[in-house]
Amino acid sequence: MAETPSSNDIVREENLVYAKTKVLTDNVMHYCPGCGHGTTHRLVAEVIEELGIQSDTIGVAPVGCSVLMYNYMDIDMQEAAHGRAPALATAIKRLLPEKYVFTYQGDGDLAAIGTAETIHACNRGEHFTIIFINNGIYGMTGGQMAPTTLPNMRTSTSPYGRDVKMMGNPLKMTELVATLPGTCFVTRQAVHSPANARKAKKAIKKSFEYQNLKQGISFVEIVSSCPSGWKMTPLQANEWIVENMFPFYPLGDIKIPEIKPEVQVEQKEGDVLHNSINQIDTDSKQVKY
Q1: How buried is 5 (Cβ within 10 angstroms: 0-12 exposed, 13-18 middle, 19+ buried)?
Q2: I want to staple 109 with a disulfide (CB 3.0 to 4.6 A). Which of 10, 105, 185, 234 is the partner?
Q3: Contacts by 194-199 with C-beta closer than 8 Å and gap 24+?
Q4: pTM
Q5: Is 6 helix (H, G, I), strand (E, B) or coil?
Q6: CB-based contacts of 178, cutoff 8 Å, min separation 6
């Protein structure tokens, strides 16, 4: 009688269609089913591996659902006080300008307690990437109203819906930072479908490549769902994000850098990044915002 093949015999490298990136650890993520954090973590990790910059990347994750990001990414990670990730990233990038630095922040962090740090880092034109997860709610603390909560959207602290006359309008942080001269690349993407996840990955990859231009902040917003905070199933949340979030937070590039002829992208030995600015993206200049 033939022996039952082992998993090693079945899962051979030549048979793999989609493998886990080595930049992700084997730790099981704590995120709720349907949450966009896990998908976005993977996209960031894949970009880091594809660019060959695992040993040259430093991430900053402050308070929020992603506070344990250091458990999931096999790169140098630094914790930051609530809202202060851009300030810490500024110090890291200035001290270690050859490193690729990014912050990973939720809307309750970046658009609330961290608004000042975000605006001033973008206005100064620091040379790192900000990845901004916008799910319109405070997910970690129980589903309270966030600065990005939609008008009339119900939360635990706005049970009758967000009244803009009393509570103000939602902050469109991406449009706001696009007006600042210190931002280089500003885009809004999503990860609710395979097609959108691929677009988001492309945007994240550009944001890392653009750090070499030294023209300012690359700001990538990911419109995400929070099934737990929204009191929905993952499928319901995916439908709700399309019907409600995207009309208010439209997807796409808002600001693209103007490539200056005298600027050359730096390339270290062994680095797989493009060594010509023409290989990055010269399809379009700044667009209206």
Answers
A1: exposed
A2: 105
A3: 196/251, 197/39, 197/43, 199/251
A4: 0.86
A5: coil
A6: 186, 219, 254, 255, 289
Alpha-helix runs per DSSP H in the chain: 7-10, 36-51, 85-95, 107-108, 115-124, 164-167, 173-178, 194-209, 227-230, 234-240, 246-248
Residue 9 counted as domain residue: no
What CATH number is attached to the domain comprising 269? 3.40.50.970
Taking the C-alpha atoms of residue 144 and residue 154, their distance in angstroms, rounded to an integer, is 9
The CA angle 191-63-45, to the nearest 5 degrees, is 40
81-116 pLDDT, tens digit per residue, is 999 999 999 999 999 999 999 999 999 999 999 999
Residue 10 placed within a domain? no
Domain residues for the domain of 74 are: 29-279
93, 134, 229, 243 from 233: Cα distances, Å: 40, 18, 10, 15
Is there a domain that residue 61 lies in?
yes
- Cβ distance 53 to 3 under 8 Å? no
Q: Report residue 222 CA to chain centroid gap.
A: 6
3-state DSSP assignment of residue 242: helix
pLDDT digits (tens, 9 = 90+) for 49-91: 999 999 999 999 999 999 999 999 999 999 999 999 999 999 9
- Kindly state the greatest CA–CA separation across the chain: 76
- Altogether, the residues listed in the chain come to a count of 289
Number of domains in the chain: 1
The whole-number average pLDDT for the span 189-200 is 98
Question: Of 11, 14, 34, whose CA–CA distance to 191 is shortest?
Answer: 34
Q: Which of 185, 267, 208 is nearest to 50 (CA)?
A: 208
Distance CA 222, CA 133 (A): 5
DSSP per position, 183-226: EEEEEEEE-SSHHHHHHHHHHHHHHHHGGGGTSSEEEEEEE---
User: Looking at the domain assignment, is residue 253 inside a domain?
Assistant: yes
